[in-house]
Write a structure and sequence with these properties.
- The structure holds three protein chains of three kinds.
- Chain A is an alpha/beta fold.
- The longest helix of chain A has 16 residues, at about 180-195.
- The two termini of chain A are about 30 Å apart.
- Chain B is of the alpha/beta class.
- Chain B is about 40% helix and about 20% strand.
- Chain B has helices at about 5-20, 65-80, 95-105, 125-130, 155-170, 190-205, 220-235, 245-260, 275-280, 295-310, 335-340; strands at about 45, 50-55, 85, 110-115, 135-140, 150-155, 180-185, 210-215, 240-245, 265-270, 285-290, 310-315, 325, 330-335.
- In chain B, strand 4 (about 110-115), helix 4 and strand 5 form a beta-alpha-beta unit.
- In chain B, helix 7 (about 220-235) crosses helix 8 (about 245-260).
- Chain B is elongated, with a radius of gyration of 20 Å.
- Chain C is mainly α.
- A two-stranded antiparallel ribbon of chain C has the order 1-2.
- The chains are: A alpha/beta, B alpha/beta, C mainly alpha.
- At the A-C interface, helix 10, strand 20, helix 13, helix 15 and helix 16 of A face helix 11 and helix 12 of C.
Amino acid sequence: MAPEPPLLTMSGITKSFPGVRALDGVDLQVQAGEVHCLLGQNGAGKSTLIKVLAGAHQPDDGEITWRGERTVLKSPIAAMRLGIATIYQELDLVEGLSVAENVHLGHEPTAAGFVVKGREAKASTVALLKRLGHAEIDPGTLVGDLSAAHQQIVSMARALSHEVRLIVMDEPSAALDPDEVDNLFRIVGDLTADGVAVVYISHRLEEIRRIGDRVTVLKDGRAVAGGLPAKETPTRDVVALMTGRNVEYVFPDRPVEPPVTEPVLKVRGLAREGEFEPLDLELRPGEIVGLAGLVGSGRSEILETIYGARKSTAGQVVVDGQTLKPGSVRAAVRAGLGLAPEERKAQALLMLESVTNNVSVSSMSRFSRGGWLDRGAERKAAQTATRELSLRPDNPTAPVRTLSGGNQQKAVLARWLLRGCRVLLLDEPTRGVDIGARAELYSVIRRLADEGLAVLLVSSEVPEVLGLADRVLVLREGRVVHTAPARDLDEHRVLDLVLEGSPAS
Amino acid sequence: MPEITSRRGLLFGAAALSTGALITGCTSNEPKDEGSDDKDQPVADDKPGKQVTIGFAGPQADHGWLNAINDNAKERAKKYSDVTLESTEGSNDTAAQIGQVETLINKKVDVLVILPADGKALTQVGLKAMKAGIPVVNLDRVFATPQAYRCWIGGDNYGMGLSAGHYIGEKLKGKKNAKVIELAGLDNLELTKQRTKGFDDALKNYSNIEKVARQAADFTVESGQSKMSQLLQAQKNFDALWNHDDDQGVGALRAIKQAGRDDFLMVGGAGALSAFQAIESDDSVLKATVLYPPTMAASAIDLARALGQGKGISGMAEFEIPSFVTCYSAVVDKENVDKYMSTGFK
Amino acid sequence: MTQPASPPRPAASKSRPADGPSPLRSVAARVDVRTLSLLGVLAALILIGGITQPDSFLDTDNVQLILTQASVIGVVTVGMTFVIISGGIDLSVGAIVALASVWATTVATQEYGFAGILFTAVIVGMACGLVNGVLIAYGRMVPFIATLAMLASGRGLALQITDGKTQMVTVDGVLKLGERDSYILGIPPLVLVFAAVTVIGWLLLNRTTFGRRSVAVGGNAEAARLAGIDVRRQRLYLYLLSGLCCGIAAFLLIVLSGSGQNTNGNLYELDAIAAAIIGGTLLSGGRGTITGSVLGVLIFMTIQNIFALNNLETATQQIAKGAIIVAAVLVQRRTASTT
């Protein structure tokens, strides 16, 4: 441990959102001039923690000490004034403004308080870009015309335009190719040599090995390890820390006999350029197949392409021997596919409407003659479906927005149940669903499979995939790297596969 | 829509009322009387004289009256073998019209006749033409300064109100507690205010008459029908109605028919053909209309020709044409409708 | 990790009777707070009209008058309500009414008599709606821009047809329809058409798959697409419907005014949008009622009627109309935030 006092100490940081305790007494210590890595699975609390650090969230409890003094980060501006800059994963640049204007946005050099000194802003932007090794970026270019990598450089220049002592980088390498990553690491090295501290968030263990000094591991809102040496700690230990579970989910039993029927869904060489590589997949009635992978591994894209919501660039989707028209949701729905998308509110639900209307929306023609709806029959059928899934409250006229996350998901499932669909595509089915309600949802999904549905499941929660699916496909960067029955896999092995692409030693 | 935006219009309006009678070309399509006393005065007449090229720039003809303005100008020019008319596409866009006038200046026409889309906005280009030595005849919508034209000729909105008011006043003479209502045009326009002012001023001469209601339509048939039907509902008994505009009058007459009312006298405004026909057949409440004559465009061509030939006007003592001509707002009723029928616009 | 869990039992046995809400509740659900507040506003206006002009406001003639005046813009508003509910906007309604009304009153059309005029008005309206729909649904144009373009070209075409002249109707049957002799049991035929369009519109919105799909597209187009609805075709139909309503309205206007003029339908787009918004239709789509929109139209027409009967000046009328729009939208926001 360095002898000087830490630059930043966060202790006992707690932050709750309705229904979720995102941070639960997290400690974090960062020294000047170090690269401090934050590790953790999706939902472990990393983003909440850096938002607290950026002044965007106020902690419910806990203390923050900055350069030996207790402080409160009231707002993003307050954090910036102290010298804390954050580069978010989703870049927060204004595409219609130039590079120089973006770099100085909010603190433009001015004369008489309001006249922007354009030349001065440009000159200092040029200096910053040079320092970042990207002198070729013209400060007058519109940010919207730049590549993702260059936008990231601009974002960094913006952070450095303040007098900065700590930079938080949230998955900065996600959008970069290897050369650009090298440049990024060189910049990080320069910064730390100047005494600037970097809090670095990444999923890629090999990056952490290359540039990290120390590692803090977050898990379910707690710091399960703080200040581990980044280069020496064995991968196995890091993975164990990331996955060691406090909450055990309850999963329903798998059927004893694996189904031997003909596949209902056959995917042959399906691909979308730039998103995922040719994929082969067969799905039998009664079977649940899981797709495991990180954000950006192409999982959701695969589901949406099978469903026709995205148009494939190669390959076929065959349902019951019939090849689906690529890029046609209607063809997929007619053939018996149903999708419960990841963004339930944005992609599946009609938030202003009732449960019944949400459930019946895909089967309206069944309750209509010449376009005329038989609302009694509609409500009865919808209610049968929602009751089968124990959707609560059992009130068909309740607006769907008043339902809990788990019940909203059931409304989406009921939609496909009512439609009589044969293949259910589930994208993150338990996102936004309370821990307690998950078990029930799992048993619903299994029961639907037992009744003859084929289910394709995507989840970023490895235990969920392992616990629920019969067979698992492990994805890494758009490619299936491993296929195995779920019972032959465990969480460590899957994490090794998704993080490193090959089984760790 | 016809419009006078300058106060000069009002000031000169009264004076011009008296001269208006002399300038017959203003209200009539009849050829001028052959001058018998023009031996020592170079005055314009129908005989071919020096060749004159007249540039004509008007607004887009999206209203029957404006359409009639264009037709009158063209017909008149055709009549003279010594006149060549360079006419532009009508435009309601000020910038476009400025461009059109500038083109005419560059073509070096002899005289310009301009009915501006907006008088104030086209003043500069009027000035430019005058400075280039091309005299301008400003038609109806007046420029911001008299320097921008050699001669202004236009209608008399205040006078319309006066004529309508006096006509109604005379018709209701002797009737006790007579009630009058007014269906005005688009209230956003100054000309509507001027018409109403003239109407009110005229009615002041008749102590037995009271104006009990006034609602504004917007020169469209639809609004005329709508506002009139409400006025009829509001006023179960009245003796006379003045409607500012014969176009909206089509709607007003429809409303009157629908309400089954015939217990009052109606006077129109502007001089549409349909109004003249109704007056002639005398089977509706419409008994008269006060003119805002589109023949002023024909007169503008006469004036421009006289200017181009350096002559004065027949029947007047001056060697030059006048600088300001306000057309009289004549009352057309069953007695004289024959004379005006050919000037009615559709 | 795989531990036994008993699947949850369906909760059917313990819940309320399966035959749905009681009749009382269903009435309460149908007449929602917003509709009640609109009825309240209308009642207040009627009170004001009755007090200020007891002789002329509260008689049958005036009721007939208000309803007749409301008919033309009312039919347009029904179509507009569908479009707004689906998350779109139709700025071209006034222009379509103008174009349809002048096309249907040309000398050539009038030779075909009553049927010719009616047919032409409806077909021209639908054709314009079809163009809007194709541009928006398949040309991926923003509704605001596509219908703005239709507004401009529709008005231009109407001007070209008429040359700025008023086209008088000479077909007796059409003229008669707008006169007192044609009233059926004291109800003007125009009002009957308006009522029929309202009822059909209500049924279409509340009782058919078409209505349900319109609401779904407006509430969440992406969700509707992923639920298997053909969003583009639905959009096409919606603008076609709006065009049809404009065609019907154009015919009503021809009957009412006995003429066709290119200035017809002036600012209908604003009046129809305003009436729909006051009636509780969300400008962002996904919610709206025909009842509300029709009440919105009636409120506007009653206000205008009261203004005219009291002989208010134009300026006062305009200021008051603006104030009422603001007030209605504020009330709507308040209702929305409390639910």
